[in-house]
Amino acid sequence: MLKKKKFSLLARFVVDTNDKKIGESISVYEDLLIIKKDDDYYAIPLKHVEVKNNKIHLRGIVQWDKAKELAERWIKNV
Fold first, then answer.
1. Would you put residue 19 in left (φ > 0), alpha (ψ -120 to 50) or beta?
2. Whole-angstrom Cα distance, residue 25 to residue 34?
3. Which of 13, 25, 36, 43 has the highest Cβ tally under 10 A?
4. pLDDT per residue as tens digits for the range 18-76
């Protein structure tokens, strides 16, 4: 993914398949989208996100425990 395209993913609301707000995108790290949800951070592979109507929609079932684990790598490197 081009750098310019990655930046277009920042500061957007992230919603589930029912258009319910989950959180906000705050960073892109490697091939992961970093989402802030309440006081926690989660990392979702970019291949599982798409932009529609200025919102980021998550595709498929998110394993939130794994997403939180992946975000730990980002936290350690920022």
1. left
2. 6
3. 43
4. 889 999 999 999 999 999 999 999 999 999 999 988 899 998 888 999 999 999 999 99
Q: Exposed e or buried b for every residue in 33-49, given b needs 16+ CB within 10 A?
A: bbbbbeeebbbbebeeb
Q: What whole-number distance in Å separates Cα of residue 75 and Cα of residue 41?
A: 9
Kindly give the residue spans of alpha helices, DSSP state H, lying in the chain: 3-7, 64-77
Determine how β-strand 13-15 pairs with β-strand 55-58.
parallel
Overall size of the chain counted in residues:
78
How far apart CA 13 and CA 66 sit, in angstroms, is 21
